[in-house]
Design brief:
The protein has 30 helices and 28 strands. It is an alpha+beta fold. Strands 23-28-24-25-26-27 form a 6-stranded antiparallel sheet. A 4-stranded antiparallel sheet has the order 16-17-19-18. Helix 2 crosses helix 29, helix 14 packs across helix 16 and helix 18 packs across helix 19.
Length: 770
């Protein structure tokens, strides 16, 4: 299809070629597939659904929508927009040869063709041999394409800025945060060289325009704003010097990071389970609690901040009222593990990693900003609202996709990735500079998606939308095979040369403490750890059998003596659990109770002639004793009578955080339906009109509407109707009425060939078509 097929008459450009005189004419000539692609690339144009193509064209030219889609353009595409705007492409059109001449030697012809194809798909540029550009598109170009400047390297910019005075730096920062063009009398020739403007001109940190005007070079502005320093005149992407490695080595490094991450998550879940962390009044986790958790898990505070964010994103910890309530309860909420944490702890290693990695990839938060200062000069706390960023998933996926474009096993440095991000998305530089790219890569490596600077196989599958089962299988293959033995040494240390099978891992962790972890884990057996195993129900003989069966080395005599010595002293003083007690000053009455049938139901056990205990709750003990003919009374620990009448159930009030709603990506079917509606609306808007009525909700209006529809059905005339659907969206379409009655209109939709039903009171207007 040509650029003008089916469109309004084209205007003759000054360059001697026909070009559609409006964006509407060009959109009308597009295929349904091209319109659907436009709506997919610019979803904001479809909200709310436009009534026809004229509305779509008007929205496509709005400045806010143009700037939004411009965020997805690279340096070459923005430069094409700048050149076309400079050549009055928004007014009369620019021949393709003029654009080629302006970019000659700076970009390959095929790259320019790809850029034009991308801009046409987004309705920012239209035309073939004569090109037109949306008038507001030039506002998206943040540098001047009509004034090439001598490019400065990052080293030159940094070296120059290191020599400026405070006053000179303030002058540069003013230009960097406002317009790069400044007017000053100090730019005139003959001005003393010690003046700030003259010094900055001599350093190359300002460019001379005329006797009263200077300009801040683009690279200097980038440096002052903390962005990646790039040359906007370079229209080819910066190269990446890949470092080729074996994919097996990359996967092994990523799997090692995954094991380390899971171990630290387990430690933090245990620490928060033992002592929940109070929630700050403004939300988040306090500095003191962060330090406590860092000490408990044996990691630094930055690592703790990342892990708690991952656990919260995966739903493994949450803020609320824990059960049981901490002894020092203040009535506030606490950060504590959720019930989902127990299920997570009992799943396989690869599945646990998948939960964390998927949560990191999708969470709308930036953990790396934790600890930085907010606008009020306060440190940003972990789990606080200041960490939230709706664009975080898009940013991290974009960085990983750049690595995903490389062959398996190929990696890149963070500086190369930052330069490529700055070229691919130059309008992101203000919020996603080199530092943000570096932090994103570091987080991806800590989560186990990257190894040695390359994307690991499990990370590649997760990024490209593989099923959970496939990603878990990739990580399982990358993890070292679990072993069923340990090496016990004479100094009472136990070394596991690899990950242990779950059963052995549980047993060794119970009887020994972790000293160091990694590819090989070192445990140490102490008196306290042996006592912990005995407290859990293990006997001395079971511990001896464990090490004799699982150790590849001889069990040292010191370990045997330690276990026997601790076991000999263990349990001499016993403490048990009882839910309630029964006491009586009359031993005969208590003996009667113990001899009754109710004693067996309550599992009463006599501790003394006047005292018995039961595992049953106190309320149940009282009820059963009363049903057996006794008259007990309830008492508390001080002996005072207590009121045990039942009360209604209560649950603690929990604070819920509103869910972040992300815009849904329309499906192919939704896009196809919307394009059909646009075609129908445009046909209705441009069809020649005859007799018509307007329904205003009154009886007369409704009667006139029905009469005109019945006439159209009888004489088989098409009509253009205005219709408001159940969602309140108004559309206009052309239909062929078939029947009218019962408050409904059945009409044939020429676009789909199907009969549709319309509610009469939702029809706002009817016009017979000539």
């Amino acid at each position: 299809m040509t650029d003008t097929e089916g469109a309004a008459p084209a205007a003759e450009s000054p360059h001697g070629a026909a070009v559609p005189d409006s964006l509407l004419a060009w959109l009308t000539a597009r295929t349904d597939a091209e319109l659907a692609e436009l709506l997919r690339l610019r979803p904001d144009l479809a909200v709310p659904p436009p009534a026809n193509l004229a509305v779509l064209a008007a929205r496509a030219e709005q400045r806010a929508s143009v700037l939004r889609v411009a965020d997805d353009l690279n340096v070459l595409e923005l430069t094409v927009i700048g050149v076309l705007s400079l050549e009055r492409g928004a007014e009369v059109g620019v021949r393709r040869e003029v654009l080629a001449e302006a970019l000659a030697g700076r970009a390959p012809v095929k790259a320019v063709d790809r850029a034009l194809k991308s801009l046409r798909a987004r309705a920012l540029v239209w035309g073939a041999q004569v090109l037109r550009v949306v008038a507001t598109a030039n506002d998206a170009v943040t540098w001047r394409v009509d004034r090439p400047q001598e490019p400065m390297t990052a080293a030159q910019v940094i070296a120059g800025l290191a020599t400026v005075t405070d006053a000179e730096r303030r002058l540069l920062e003013t230009l960097a945060t406002s317009s790069p063009i400044g007017r000053t009398r100090d730019a005139a020739p003959g001005t003393p060289p010690d003046r700030p403007v003259q010094r900055l001109l001599s350093l190359g940190l300002l460019s001379w325009v005329d006797e009263q005007t200077v300009e801040l070079p683009h690279q200097v502005g980038q440096a002052l704003r903390g962005e990646t320093i790039t040359d906007p005149m370079a229209l080819t992407p910066p190269p990446i010097r890949t470092n080729k490695q074996k994919i097996a080595d990359v996967n092994a490094v990523a799997a090692g990071e995954a094991l380390e991450l899971i171990r630290h998550c387990e430690d933090l879940i245990a620490a928060l389970g033992d002592q929940p962390a109070p929630t700050l009044k403004a939300g988040g986790l306090g500095v003191r609690e962060t330090r406590r958790l860092a000490k408990a898990a044996g990691v630094d505070e930055n690592r703790v901040s990342l892990i708690v964010e991952l656990l919260a994103a995966a739903g493994l910890i949450a803020s609320g009222a824990p059960d049981p309530v901490p002894a020092t309860d203040t009535g506030d909420d606490y950060w504590a593990p959720t019930v989902a944490a127990d299920a997570w702890l009992n799943t396989g290693t690869a599945q646990r990693w998948y939960t964390l990695a998927h949560g990191w990839l999708e969470m709308p938060r930036r953990p790396w900003v934790i600890g930085l200062r907010d606008p009020n000069d306060k440190a940003i706390a972990a789990l606080s609202e200041e960490v939230r960023a709706s664009g975080a998933p898009r940013d991290r996926k974009f960085v990983l996709e750049l690595l995903g474009e490389l062959a398996p096993g190929q990696g890149a440095t963070t500086s190369e990735l930052a330069a490529l991000v700055a070229w691919r998305r130059p309008r992101w530089s203000g919020r996603f500079g080199a530092g943000a790219v570096e932090h994103t890569v570091a987080e991806a490596a800590a989560v186990g998606l990257i190894g040695r600077g390359a994307l690991a196989s499990p990370g590649r599958g997760l990024l490209h939308g593989a099923t959970a089962e496939a990603v878990v299988a990739e990580m399982t293959a990358s993890l070292p095979a679990p072993i069923d033995y340990v090496l016990v040494q004479a100094d009472l240390t136990v070394m596991a040369p690899g990950p242990l099978i779950p059963e052995l891992q549980e047993q060794i962790t119970l009887v020994a403490d972790i000293e160091s972890a990694g590819a090989a884990t070192m445990y140490r057996i102490r008196e306290d750890s042996v006592r912990r195993a005995l407290d859990a129900g293990k006997s001395a003989s079971e511990l001896h059998a464990l090490f004799e069966k699982r150790s590849k080395t001889p069990v040292p005599q010191a370990l045997t003596y330690l276990i026997d010595d601790v076991a000999r002293r263990h349990g001499q003083l016993r403490a048990g659990v009882a839910s309630s007690f029964v006491r009586c000053e009359d031993p005969a009455l208590l003996a009667e109770v113990l001899a009754s049938a109710v004693a067996e139901q309550l599992a009463l056990r006599a501790l003394a002639p006047t005292v018995a205990i039961s595992q049953a709750p106190l309320s149940e003990v009282l009820d059963l004793l009363r049903s057996a003919g006794f008259a007990p009374a309830g008492e508390d620990s001080s002996g005072a009578i207590v009121d045990l009448r039942p009360r209604g159930a209560r649950v603690p009030r929990r604070r819920t955080r509103p869910a972040l709603r992300m815009p849904a990506v329309p499906t192919d079917d939704q896009l196809g339906s919307l394009v059909s509606q646009l075609r129908a609306g445009q046909r209705a808007a441009t069809a020649p009109r005859g007799q018509g009525v307007r329904s205003d909700g009154s009886r007369a209006g409704g009667a006139a509407t029905m009469a005109l529809l019945q006439l159209a059905a009888k004489v088989r005339r098409s009509v253009a109707i205005g219709y408001v659907d159940a969602q309140g969206v108004a559309t206009e379409r052309v239909v062929d009425p078939v029947s009218v009655g019962g408050g409904q209109l059945d009409a044939l939709d020429p676009e789909t060939g199907a009969v549709r039903r319309f509610t009469l009171h939702r029809i706002t207007s009817v016009n017979l078509l000539d």
